[in-house]
Design a protein that fits this description.
The chain is 5% helix and 38% strand. The protein is mostly beta strands. Strands 8-9-4-3-10-11 form a 6-stranded mixed sheet. The longest helix is centred in the N-terminal third of the chain and has 7 residues. The two termini are 23 Å apart. The structure holds zinc ion (ZN) (2 copies). One zinc ion (ZN) binds next to helix 1.
């Protein structure tokens, strides 16, 4: 079991399986959303994910004219887990407690549009555009 929480602790959740690894999205939308080089997430099946506290503090924003959604804590603004597709959640890797430490980056996506200053130095497979494997 891997626990996670937002910065203020209003929202807590648990993952009941070991994720295969971390996906880093470098696209311009994720960059603006986080103010960083993109976002690092793990993909977890709905059955292995559970909110344990504060789900009522989860807010969602949909980018107009797109299907792109972002999920965040209403109190502190931290990114929190959100729906990836009907069967899976994407869980920001930075929220995970100790159990997340054994994870490695396995995929970089939208590398074709990453920031110039964003230099990838790990062994994760690089994909020019999207990949959801
Ligand atoms: Zn919070
Ligand atoms: Zn992205």
């Amino acid at each position: 079991m891997i626990a996670g929480q937002c910065n203020c602790g209003s929202i807590h959740f648990e993952i009941r399986s070991q994720p295969s690894g971390v996906y880093v999205c470098h696209c311009s939308i994720c960059r603006r959303s986080t103010g960083s080089n993109g976002i690092a997430v793990v993909l977890v099946s709905n059955d292995d994910f559970q909110w344990t506290r504060g789900q009522e503090n989860v807010a969602m924003w949909t980018k107009p004219d797109s299907a792109w959604e972002t999920w965040f804590c209403k109190v502190c603004g931290s990114r929190v887990p959100g729906r990836n597709d009907p069967a899976r959640m994407f869980v920001p890797a930075g929220l995970l407690a100790d159990g997340g430490n054994a994870l490695k980056v396995i995929h970089h996506i939208w590398v074709g549009s990453k920031a110039e200053w964003d230099e990838i130095g790990d062994q994760g497979k690089q994909h020019v555009d999207g990949y959801r494997g």
